[in-house]
Structures are given as structure tokens and as C-alpha cells.
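Contributing new records

If you add data, match the layout below exactly. Sequence lines come first and carry their own label; structure lines follow with theirs. Keep one chain per record. Anything else will be rejected by the validation script.
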Amino acid sequence: MSYKITLPIFLEPAYRLTKLISDGKYTQTFFAVDEGEYPFTPCIVQRISSHLSTLDNVEKKVQILRQLKNYTHIPKLISYVSTSEYFYLVFEYFDGINLKELLSKQTFDENQIWKLLIDVLPILEVLHTHQLIHCDIKPENIILYKNQEITQFVIVDFAAAQIVGADNYFGNNLISGSPEYIAPEQLNCKPVFSSDLYSLGVTCIHLLTQISPFHLFDTSNNQWVWRHYLQSPISTRLSYILDKLVNQDIKYRFQSVDEVIQAMGISRSNLTIHLKENAQQIQAPNQISNSYTLKLNSYLTSAVNSVAMHPSAKILGSAHENKTAYIWDLETKQVLYSLRGHLQSIKSVAFSPDGKLVATGSDDKTLKLWNLDNYEQIHTLGHKHAVKSVAFSPDSKLIASGSWDKTVKLWDIATGQEICVLTGHKLQVSAVAFSQDGSLIASASFDKTAYLWKLTQSQNNHLDCTLHYIFSSHTWAVTCVAFSPDGKILATGSDDNSIKLWDTSTGREIATLSGHSWSITALAFKFTEDVLVSASKDKTIKLWHYTEDTKEIITLSGHTDSVTCIAITNNSNTIIASGSTDKTIKLWQ
């Protein structure tokens, strides 16, 4: 600066600026004290020159920042003051350590970089969702802050932030951001969302190398040379992510936070894993003793629609609103692969009993079959409307699909040919299931009924599908069906909040299980015990005895929104997986 700043500075109505933290040509950041109420509270004041920005643009930015007040990883905008020379933004103060300071005390390895990416990317997603580009992501502006018992990253310093679509107020060749970290397009005063991703990538390679970014780029050959300066080796997966983050050509760079998360999901994991569920410890002998939570990044993903257990009990599949199905390693709690190709949300996922295939059903009117060895698509099969449920036959030769076109279709897996169409439901089909011996299929419908179909093989090897029974005592839509391990009982769940048990040999209603306070969304039988598991929109999972004395055993709580799906391992070491619209999968054991 060409002039000296004299402290303290008093700012109306009651802010005393006591320490200069950073000083730029057109912006300064101060540590300040709010003396409006006792006890006085610390705060951060950013001063922006009126030469840098117009009143209209600053006030638009203030409006957006005020919308972000409830996000714990973004400092709350406390106040805004305008004078003829300056605009003052008063922010919440975080007493933490920034990454530049942290780097002076320790080195960063691969695990810490993954954590940084997983924690910071959702913050950028929030900013970008609100049409705000930070424009100055660098180690000094990422603070590690301990909030009670939780350590979290916070992004600070919004003086350079720009609103997408607003007039470029960094006119007159004024460049936003710090030269070492800004993306090439920012040199032309044209930042975009991926500019923040570029700066985050440069921050990561600086932390890994402890070398100035200026020295990590070979200008003569127009390429990064950061690998030469690594303090410790990193995986090819992380290298790929970093290379694409810092690509000089914007066309080949990640365009959005979502793209980065998708790439991380394929090569490593895009999860934040919470190991013990602290909200509730369930003590039930021989039942569920604790839970683990697999949580896709909460700012980036949507509801979990379906979960499925692999026959090996080592792999879990999950289907999501974001058009993606994930294959998880249950031992490491990591994503092994992300299945993409559907054009709309995926509503159902299932593994073949022989463990070789996975099927997905989607609102895009298709079901897809994937090879688990290489995750390649084998078949794409179709309905006239959304596919809501898929199920494999026990011999892994057939797959059934239930659709909102009111039909159930049976397909030959080897050829991808349609074998038969089961018709009769008057409204959408919501669920399908095979009995363990493959002789029966159950279908659930919004028409308040469940149909039981009998499959028989004729002498000429033709599959005959005939309607065996119609179960019609539910008073609202039937949402789910499940067969007991011996196939003698069919369980149906409904929007009428009840579960009904039916004798598959006689069609007789055996019992009604009541206890949920909202719609039943999923049912599954345990194979090692006479136990039925149910999920509900009331946010709970219940376990029931279903033979002789039908009664509720236990209620599992922990989800914060509707439980949409459940799956159970078929071995003695029972694990129940539950998915929810709260964007988590819980593993109960």
C-alpha cells in the first residue's frame, strides 16, 4: 500500500478494528471487536475499496452471503457497512489455524489430502449452488477449526468472490485472487466455477510438495512438474484427480464439484464414514447392538432409493436419485465402483444369486444388467414407463421388472429377450419378488393389491406364468413384498401403515403387524431366524417375530428422514443395511 493504515479504526455502529491481517491493493482484512454488547465478541472485517466494486454488486453479494448464514463451514455475515470510500463486510470469527500455518508445523500426506478434498468440496458446492465463485481459494483462506468435539474446515475471505452473471466489477484489468493459485481464465477476469476447483487443486499440490506453485509449473514446456517435488508417494488415483483439477485448459478440467466427486467415487471413495452411531445404543440380546453410517457427501447427493446385499455378504449395492448406483466394499466401507448410464434416478438395485451380475431399474424406463467382473453393461431392457423394482430368479437365469406401466416383465438374462408380460394390475406396479425355489413371483401395486403368480415349465421348455392369488385387504397402495425363506409366507407392506402375512399355499391372510406410524417402504426376511424386518417413512426399522406369536422385537432408530429400503446378509453374521432420504446408508449389526 502507498499509505499507512493507522489502528485502531472505529466503524459504526460498534466495531473496533484492532489488527491488520492482510493488506491488498483494494482490499484489507482486519481482526476486530464488536463492542455493541458485553461481553465484547471478536469478529473479522473485510474492507473493499469503492474503486474495486460497485454498490450494486456488493449488495448483491451481501444478499447471497446472508443466505449462507446457517452453514457451519462458512463464516456468518454479521453486518454490512457502506461509506463513500469503502464497503465493510463484518464476519463471524473462527479461532482456528489456516493451512499455511499448519504446513509450517507438519507435512501433508495422501490421506490428509483426501480428507481435505472430501471436506472442502461440499463447501464449494454450496457457494456454487448460490451462484457465487469464491475466486481466492488458497491455504490462507482454508481454516481448520474445532467446533466442540468436531474438527472441520472453514472457507473464509469473500472479498474477491464474484456472482455468476453479474457485471464483472473487476474491470479496468483488475484481477481477482492470489497469483500463485488463480486459474488462467481469472487472468482474463473471467472466472467460472471450475476456477475454484483449479485453485483447490493447486492448494493440494502445494501442501504435498511444500513448494511455491510458481515453481511447480514449467512455463517453457507449459506443464506441471509437481510430481518431482512430492514429499511422499501418492496413488495414481489421487494423481489423476489432481491433474484434472489443475489442468490449464478449462475444457479438460473438472467443470463442477459433482464431477470431482464422481471421479473420486470411481477411483477411491466419495464418502464420509461415521464409525459408531452415537445417537442411540441399542441393547438387545442376539439382535442389533450397534450401527455404522455410510454417508455420501450431504451437499452433493440425494436420497438412497434401494440397497442390495451381494451373496458373498462382502459387497453392498445402493441406488440413488443422482442417476448412480454404487458398489461398496463392506469391510473397508469404501466405494468400489460407481455405475452410471441411466438418464434418470435409479429406483432399484439387485445382485444375481450366483454373484456375477447386478441389475438396476430406473425412472428412465429401463433396467440395465452389469457384469460385476468389469462393470460393463450387458443388456439394457425397457418398459413403457418407469421401472421401480427388479429381482433375479434363484437360478440367476431370469430377471423380473415391475413398472409404472402396470406390468411385470420376465426376461431371459442370457439373451436379453422378453419371455412374458404379467398383466392385471389396474395401477402402477411398485415391487416384485421371487420365492426361494423360483416357482412364485409376487407383485405389489398402487391398486391396493398384491398378486401371486405361479411359474411352471411346460414340456416344450416354455415358461407359463399364471395368476395364482390376489391379496386385497390393504386399504391403501401396496408398496413392497417379500417371501419367507421357505416360500410359505408372503409379507406385504402398505401405505396404510400395516404389514400383512399371507399363506402362499392357500391365499389366506395369517396376520397383520401394526406398529409403524407411516407407510411401510421395504420388507426383508432374515434367513437364520424367524424374523421379518420392515422399514418405514416414520424413520424407523422394526424387527418382528412372524411365526406363531407374531410380535415386535425391537425398533431401530437413527435415520433423520424416511427409511426407503433395507437388505440383509444371508449368513450367521447378520448385517442389516438401511437406506434413507437423509442420504445415508446405515449398517446394523
